[in-house]
Please model this.
Amino acid sequence: MAADTAAVRQAADTITEAARAQYDAEPHHEDFYALALATEQVLDALFALNGSIGAQLARYGEGRPLRTDTDRTPAQVLATAMDHGRVLDAALRQARQAAHALAGECARLAFRPEDTA
Model:
């Protein structure tokens, strides 16, 4: 197996822990701006992961017989999986645009100098 699924799971756990820790933290600009940028990076990673899954699904049955544990044919299951992947692709594209906009707006926020003393 070429994929390091343990690393992907560990990354997901680390991201979840960081998000939960930040939720209750004092809102410092550099923290939430960095997290907004990181959100965009995470979505980029999910986009790449989804693309990899789609590429693997596209050639999964090449040269070997497949079966399913449903009443659908392997071709139907693969087609449905690919459809879900396309839906996820569209959602991730939209989420990436929103995350980019979020980071941009977060960058515009700052304390007024007279309020930081």
Notes: The two ends are 56 Å apart (CA to CA). The chain has a mean pLDDT of 87.
